[in-house]
Amino acid sequence: MTDRPLPNLDRWIADLAPALGLGDVDVPLRELLDLTRDVAHGVARPAGPITTYLVGLAVAQGMSVDDAHSVVTRLVEERSE
């Protein structure tokens, strides 16, 4: 992903997180967007948001974002071999 600004995403997160009962959260935007893009292109487009949701569940259960990202990247790479 490029380093272009992500219009309205910070504001969306600021509005959505408390509405979901999450309060102030640190969202790794670039990492999640890159991961979603890689899965959408390497697996199937609908797999992108589903993967992001599952990564969120894994992180909520204690896995680090970096570890979840590594797992997903490995699986995407295995599918392309």
Please describe what this structure looks like.
There is one protein chain. The two termini are about 25 Å apart. Helix 2 crosses helix 3. It is built from four helices and no strands. The radius of gyration is 13 Å and the shape is globular. It is mainly alpha-helical. The model has no long low-confidence stretch (mean pLDDT about 90).
Short description:
By secondary structure, this protein is mainly α. It contains four helices and no strands.
Please trace the helix and strand order, writing H or E for each element. Answer: HHHH
**Structural class given helices, strands, pairing?**
mainly alpha
Note the main sheet.
Answer: none
Helix content percent band? 55-70%
Number of contiguous helices: 4
Radius of gyration: 13 Å
Mean pLDDT across every amino acid position: 91
Number of strands: 0
Q: For the terminal residues, how far apart are their CA atoms?
A: 23 Å
Shape: globular
Low-pLDDT runs of 5+ residues are none
Strand content: under 5%
